[in-house]
Fold each of these.
Amino acid sequence: MRITPTAGAGRVLLPCVLVAILLTLFMPCAPRATAAPDSTGREVTFTGGAGLTLHGTVISPAATNSDTPGIVLVGGSGPGPREEYRREAEAFAAAGITVLIYDKRTDGYSRTHRDFGLLADDALGAVRYLRDQPGVRRDMVGLWGFSEGGWVAPLAASRSDDIAFLITLGASGYDPLRTQTWYLANRLRHRGDRSALIDALAGPAARLLAGTGLFAAADFDPLPVLHRVHVPILGLWGDHDVQEPPVESAAIFQRSLTADPSVTLRFLTAASHNGRSTVTGFDRVGPTYDRPIPPGDFAPGYLDTMTDWLHRVAAGTPPESSAAPAPAQPTASRDPGRDPWTSPGIQAAVIILLLVAFLAYLPISRTGKRIRGTRPLALFGLTSVLGTIAYLLWIYATGGNSPGPIVLARPLPWLVLQLLAVGTVVALALTLYNTVRSRAALTAIHRRGLALLIPAGFVWLAWAPTWGLLFR
């Protein structure tokens, strides 16, 4: 039977259709949330390391559950407001796990000073607080540590019997300085740099920076800590992690975590350092949220891998130890080296010597008969030394975000420094040639000046290749 709509029905249906279309077109689209909103949160305070009061949020499953596992989230580097990890916290709560997220301390934590031991005490204070909450199993509270938290959370777990399990995401098996130089190298390569700047950053610059104490916790060694961890652990790395070497780090974890029979190491497919979906490691796939919530969708399997593993541990049946096959890691990390020539003390002494020698000769170059090449040697040498140190420190300070435009497969400031280095070599050759030609006519002050300048030029000639100024 064919049903023909009446005119009255049309008059009713048409406005409804129009309203539905308008709502579809103009209704604001909320970002897709991976975590289900079936959780409740309440503000709390607890005592961290050195008696500091810290502020956090306990997020619990909305359903009335008793004896739930508990987990404390330990964030990465930087100011670390708790909201940065709310999406992970809500995902754990949606899976029936009570979570504590908290604001990182600002007292005793800065760009140049980081005490991982103090941060570990903060995490332990959070664990003690969560263990005392109604409905939380006291024997089943553990830690989740991301990035910098991948150093802090294992340290906390190695210090206390209160930790029941440990999950790490993007944890490095190396010290912070080596990890950071690998990240800076990746950023520069991503921008198109193919010069010796990368080697300088990872070699002499890294050692000099460590020697000055300006790089926080530069030499923190995670290996002794990993040897002391005796709880089930799940280690996760994004296969597109560009901030720490994932394959090398997983191998270090596999070698070091031998005391407990349940060590599970996994790589997340198409995942970045923080577990978000990515194509290159530098981009994020998915919606952008209000800061400080990181942009992008969670990588496939990220949340399920953690919650499934945790429920097995809570049930008393942790999985047997296993390590997933490692993906390809495009570049290897680099040890800054141990040779005496690039040690911080010798490099600092050489740099001071060069600066003093070149500066001291400049006023001499203005007196009497000038010798061609000497003033350019002092000027170019002085500028190349100061510029190189200042530029490399700038790259470290900015995290490689502002190296300058890329010209001839290198940042423009580095190209200028390399051209200055070539000019210094030419000026040294001219100085030697003209000094030999004019030695009979040299005044006493010029003889003393050249006795300072020429040896400094040869020292510079040994120093410059070490810092990559005369190669690539």
Note: Residues 181 and 202 are 5 Å apart (CA to CA).
Amino acid sequence: MQFIDQARIAVQGGRGGDGIVAFRREKYVPAGGPSGGDGGHGGAVWLQADANLQTLLDFKYKRLFAAPEGRRGGPNRCSGAGGEDLVVRVPCGTEVRDPDTEALLGDLIEPGDRLRVAAGGRGGLGNAHYLSNRNRAPEKFTEGKDGEERQLQLELKLLAEVGIIGLPNAGKSTLISVLSAAKPKIADYPFTTLIPNLGVVRKPSGDGTVFADIPGLIAGAAQGAGLGHDFLRHIERTRLLVHLVDGSSADVAHDLAVVEAELVAYGHGLADRPRLLAINKVELLDEDALAAASNALKERWPREVLAISGATRQGLDRLLEAVWKELDRSEQALVAQSS
């Protein structure tokens, strides 16, 4: 399945039905009077979050969504049928924006969340509506109104509690593959991962936590360089970041600084997000090399530096223990803020 996380679509509410001019012509009902009914309202267009969708791929092939029109009125004061609403399903985590102003119109996070993006047009009035003491036989009616029409920008932001970040080839895909049932493409060269990967990791309590492997960032990603610019948005919703540094790199401190600079440049609070730092691929290092790498990172990172190996699973229990502790701490902070 192709991963598409941005799309532009057009939506159009249904046109309202026209009112009509009609008069009662029944035997034994002299001067029956006007009986033209009103037209029905046009259908509205709604977006609805669907947990079964993971991508905006469907909007690559269909970009116009128009709701049905209302039916015209009938004789004997019969109103026309209203047009049915059109419900367009989108993945959970979809933001809806105005493409011209970039204003946020809605954020569909939970399954079933709905947003009306185009109202249907009002139905026209039949001549029965214009009956008065001064005009006993009106021949006036109104046409239905056009439905609302607008352009929309859809952006999908993955719903993951933990985001795994780092330079290309830091071992992010390997880590998520051993922690969860995810099966990302893995190879021993940079930029193997071209799309974000999601995996569910079980807590000791049995609850599932979603981890996201974000494709590698490089210097200048926040300004559009490399792949990272396309996927930085996917870590905006995360509560915790796990920052991997390749232990076999010639300059681990520089690698750490590059990614930190991109988090700051992108903004949206990513630089202030709770973060764990881990040296990966420690199976390639002897004790002296590991100590040297840890000391180099501690000059920029005052907190604990974890040592792990996605390939041999070394240190993963300690990493997960730190993850659960940080998530519990952030959850307690949210509860304290709300109370």
Note: Residues 154 and 261 are 28 Å apart (CA to CA).
